[in-house]
Amino acid sequence: MVQVTPFLLVLLLALGAHGLSVKKKCSLPGRWVNDLGSNMTITTVNGNGVFVGSYHTAVTATSNEIQLSPLQGSLQKSLNQKSQPTFGFTVNWSFSDSITVFTGQCFVDEYGKEVLRTMWLLRSHVENIKNDWKATRVGTNVFTRLQSQE
Ligand code: BTN
């Protein structure tokens, strides 16, 4: 027992150090909800980082009935792949003549929870160039993974 104890100590230290160096990866596929209550599903990310999905917004700048809308995006695939990658995606709204582009980063927070911090530009259609100045809204959204699949 006297000889075993230092061995165990070294083993535990080694395992502990290994555990600390294993960083949890933030990954995009799955279902997400944002601070407005909008839901987003990212279905697949291919080998080039190109992804598709669908978006159900909780709010609209129009008086139209909200419908599920497609999204297409791209995940940054750097040579030494990052555990908290940057990404961008476009939502082509099915129920309005607007487009939204999102850009953001997939983080793992201090509690090990994945979170998407994004900024967006919502471009609305205007009838003529004189109205261009009021056609773009800007904002931020924070997405967290929907509970059922953590
Ligand atoms: C439109 O109103 O023309 C389309 C819907 C726009 C919804 C915006 S996109 C940015 C913000 N984040 C959301 O989840 N919804 C709003």
TrEMBL record:
<keyword id="KW-0325">Glycoprotein</keyword>
<keyword id="KW-0092">Biotin</keyword>
<keyword id="KW-0732">Signal</keyword>
<comment type="similarity">
    <text>Belongs to the avidin/streptavidin family.</text>
</comment>
<comment type="function">
    <text>Forms a strong non-covalent specific complex with biotin.</text>
</comment>
<dbReference type="InterPro" id="IPR017889">
    <property type="entry name" value="Avidin-like_CS"/>
</dbReference>
<comment type="subunit">
    <text>Homotetramer.</text>
</comment>
<dbReference type="InterPro" id="IPR051764">
    <property type="entry name" value="Avidin/Streptavidin-rel"/>
</dbReference>
<protein>
    <recommendedName>
        <fullName>Avidin</fullName>
    </recommendedName>
</protein>
<dbReference type="GO" id="GO:0009374">
    <property type="term" value="F:biotin binding"/>
</dbReference>
<keyword id="KW-0964">Secreted</keyword>
<dbReference type="InterPro" id="IPR005469">
    <property type="entry name" value="Avidin"/>
</dbReference>
<feature type="signal peptide">
    <location>
        <begin position="1"/>
        <end position="19"/>
    </location>
</feature>
<dbReference type="InterPro" id="IPR036896">
    <property type="entry name" value="Avidin-like_sf"/>
</dbReference>
<feature type="disulfide bond">
    <location>
        <begin position="26"/>
        <end position="106"/>
    </location>
</feature>
<dbReference type="Pfam" id="PF01382">
    <property type="entry name" value="Avidin"/>
</dbReference>
<keyword id="KW-1015">Disulfide bond</keyword>
<dbReference type="InterPro" id="IPR005468">
    <property type="entry name" value="Avidin/str"/>
</dbReference>
<dbReference type="GO" id="GO:0005576">
    <property type="term" value="C:extracellular region"/>
</dbReference>
